[in-house]
Amino acid sequence: MAPLHRLALLLATMSLAAPGSVLAASIWSVESPQEYLALIDSDGDGRVSLREYQDYLGRSAREMDRNGDGLLSANELPPGTRSRGGRPVNLQRQREAFATRFHLQDRNGDRYLDAEELGAPPR
Ligand SMILES: [Ca+2]
Ligand SMILES: [Ca+2]
């Protein structure tokens, strides 16, 4: 598999419930890890911080949390999607899961992800 395919697969697998489907669509539209990095790198310094990573991956979930209680309940998820086991998606827990993934992807331990680290397969 090409690295980007693995990346898309990884992100689709790690994301919880509905936010993943939105994310997967945006991942498939980028051509290279460099483009993917540019999408996430909101301050434009050429590397992805944990904050940028969490903000990007959690963006669609935050938009869906209409009552702002930090949970995505069934009626806040798009029609046709279901949360795992019917339980609400906890956005804080989702952020923590993103952080765990971020640290795994940060192979050189400098607390930032470069394009190569972003495109690397999970270990
Ligand atoms: Ca950055
Ligand atoms: Ca790094």
Cα radius of gyration in angstroms? 14 Å
* Structural shape: elongated
Number of domains: 1
Give the helix proportion (percent range): 40-55%
Strand content: 5-15%
Element string (H = helix, E = strand): HHHEHEEHEH
What is the end-to-end distance?
A: 15 Å
On the 0 to 100 scale, the average pLDDT is 81
Low-confidence stretches: 12-22
Let me know the largest β-sheet: 2 strands, antiparallel
Structural class: mainly alpha
> Strands of the largest sheet, in order across it?
1-4
What is the tally of helical segments? Answer: 6
Question: What report would you give on this structure?
Answer:
There is one protein chain. With 123 residues, the chain is mostly helical. The protein has one domain (3-119). The protein is 53% helix and 7% strand. The protein has a two-stranded antiparallel ribbon with strand order 1-4. Strands 2-3 form a two-stranded antiparallel sheet. It is elongated.
